[in-house]
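Annotators were shown the component list below and the corresponding predicted structure, then asked to write short factual statements about the assembly.
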Amino acid sequence: MISRFRVFAAKLQGLFAPGHDAREFDDEIRAHLRLLAERFIAQGMRQEDAAAAARRQFGNATLLQENRRELRTWLPLETLWRDVCYGARQLRRNPLFSTIAVLSLALGIGANTAIFTVVHAVLLQPLPYPHADRLAIIWSGLGNEHRAPASEYELDQLRQRSRLFDQIGGIWVTNSGVPGEGEPEQVKLGQVTDNFLSLLCSKPAQGRLFTPEDIQANAPAALIISYGLWQRRFGGDPGVIRRQLRVGNSSITVVGVLPQDFHLIFPDDSSVPTNVDLFEPLRVDSSQPGGPSYLRTIGRLRLGASFAQAQSESDEIASQLRRTVPTFNDAKFSLRVAPLQDDDVRNVRRTLVLLFGGVVFVLLIACANVVNLLLARSGYRMRETTIRVAVGAARSRIIRQLLTECIVLGISGGVAAVGAGWLAIKGLLALRPESLLRLGAIQLSPAVFAYTLSVSILAGIVFGLAPAFTASRVDLVRGLKSGPRVAGRGRKLPRAALISAEVALSFVLLVGTGLLVRTFLALLHVNPGFQPGNVLTFTTSPGNYNFVHELLQKLLTIPGVQSASIVSHLPLDDSYPNWYDAYYPEGTAPSQQSTTLADSRSILPGYFQTIGATLVEGRDFTEADDAAHQHVAIIDDALAKETWPGQDPLGHKLNISDSPKGPYQFERDWVVVVGVVEHVQYHSLTTMVRPQVYVPFQLAPRPVSFVVRASAPLANLAAPIRAQVAKLNANAPVARLIALNELVNQARAQNRFVAFLVGALAGIALLLACIGIAGVTWYSIAQRTNEIGIRIALGAGSNEILRMIFGQNLVPVIAGLLVGLALSFALTPLLQTMLFGVRPGDPLTFGAISTFLLLVGALACYLPARRVTEIEPNTALRYE
Amino acid sequence: MSKGRVGDAKRSEVLQGTLDLMVLKTLHALGPQHGFGIARRIEQLSQGVLQLNEGTVYTSLLRLQQQGWIASDWGTSENNRKAKFYSITKRGLKQLERETDEWKRISGVIGRVLRLEGGG
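Structure shown to annotators:
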């Protein structure tokens, strides 16, 4: 070990002071020669003879210097440099070859760079929180619902009973106006436990985070604001800390500003958006188990505890609660612990892994292409290699040189790829797939560069190895005797195999694209249960009935507005908390009362008409459906079918939670079903999450969005809507003014994004494969020009030869097609969860892609093959 | 089939090792020496049996120096010329001991093997 180190040190010295060392050594050798010569002269030799004799006795001094260099420097390093220069010269000398090779690699590696950037940012980079690897999200389970929020009681019980979490915190996000003076603005307000922010943020930008004092019974109201809001509303004034802001008749003190890069990164079904601007401390009332479930709970594991241990502890806690508290037992209560990051990315992980698989395919195709080119070229270079071996180059030396050349090629491709990747990332960002963007900063980082570099070198080695070894297995005699063409003969099979592989891989990508595009098309035509066209939505506050009612009257006066209403949670919109609760019909046994869950929606009359939902049976609400009259509800057809199969649900009683006793006092109550509406896809276009119960807003007031259907272009409605709101209340902010169609588009965004990406990859793959097919066909003609000339001279028609060449080169394409078909049948089931309206083995897609690829392959084969018809037998025979 | 191969590494390696041992022993026996002196001493001891390119002594010296078994310093030779003097280091002494043992062991084994063949 020590001696290794010494050698290293000596070499290092040699690297930095090469000249000095060499001169000293030269001096030493010269002195030795002089002494030897003097000795010979002393023995009676003539002076000239003595010098020669001395040199003879001393041996080869140049070789000695070389030896010294080898000992004192990294000879491989020097050789490497020479090889690099030589490789670069070779590439320059053959620009067509180099361009195609570098372009292939740029596409292959560039696609890799782009996707890896996303994978790195989303899957590999830890969340930007202190001790991110110990953060867990804790879901409550109720009956069939496994991703439910926790009640305050549950949170408190977890805190008391858990030994493995050192902190457990919770958040609930709602909407609020910004307190204080200035333009009315509606923002997200997070109600958080006192420890929640310190779990996710090590140090605020200004002031402090919440402390247990903030939730004392008589503590002054405290507020923490986001950096963005601080800049926007307070001009970044540090004096905002301790400032009292007016809210209605009371006031609230700003105690802290969060850092600029602070974002909430929560799973997309948690109703916790990234951009929460206000935080208020939440006092957890743990006195009784019956409270509403609404808190998203996170915990930090103690050092050394594992998620599996935490899960089994939570299982134990859940079972204790089930034993001691009857309602928990009835609800089949359970707890699930998941690493926060895993839970965040659970929906995109599969997509990203699949995309990553796709880019690996593209890279393999690019490599196969370059191997093909190299193999073709190594035929031409056989003579050069043979000569080098003949004059004494070692096999290992030649392999090294060829490998270096390939790595130079790989890195050139890599450099071009960083450019291509950069463009690709810009493209990715422009497409704005929100489900990905919220998860991490997607940018070129050192890790990405390191990845690209490694991939480039690895690719260089992969596609360099085979040609290098074949080229170095030189038959001296045959190689020197033959012309440049003959040598490549034996390598036809591997090239055909490479073409088959390229076609097979392209086929898989094309089929994947086909299926995803069909999914997207199916999504375009899916019936979401409402007609999103011509509907505009917005939010405002205050949200009391009088204001809402008056505003709706005013909205109806705007020219072009056909109807207007409100709803507590828009379809396909995650920006509001989603209320859902247990429901049961009369006669349900107590143990079954918590097992069926439905989304609760508070609406006013005209909602269904406005969003274009279909009332199947019964009636819409009226203004008279309030707490003072009979409590009524409208259910969706899914709930009707589940609860009263084969019966008319109208007039039946249903037990749900509403708040007949006052705002937010959600209590269990019997309501009478007065209408049935077609199911509306509230959470996703493709899957039905829960059935729905609609209750009159007067009965269960919740934060609401307005919906307005108009015949006029929606863009022209924004100004009059703002005007009407301002007329009613100058301090009322208008936010999230957005077309309902936009929400539908957003719901399709990820599918569109993935379909587009896979499509782009498949396009690149197809292009590369075509280049490969054309290249091999072209080369096979070049190689056989002589033979073809003879055939023509002997009377073969050029069409006949065209058919022969075409047929022979189409064989590997067809073979690849068959392999691809089999491979696709094996691989497409992996796409299952991403598909909608189409099965993985969809015969239409497979058939269309087969035909398409066969046609494109045949064309790529035919176009260069046509060259044979231009061959002049005379030239061909003399062709060397 | 004639395949391109150059260099026969094995033979030269044996020679190398032997030369290193001889150089190390010379420095041990005679104290600091310059390259020319070492070459003379080996020539003298080999009594013309060993045909040696004297240049290889320098390769050996470099190698030994790199391992830290010898040290070098510029000094003045007996006829008043600037010359590089090599001397054995502590580590070099240990190495010499090890190599001498090894050499004795191997030459003993080879001797025995050769005797055995002669007898059979």
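Statements collected:
1. The interface with chain B takes residues 2-3, 6-7, 10, 24-25, 28-29, 31-32, 35-36, 57-61, 63-64, 67-68, 71-72, 389-390, 392-395, 474-477 of chain A (CB under 8 Å).
2. Confidence is low (pLDDT under 50) at residues 484-490 of chain A.
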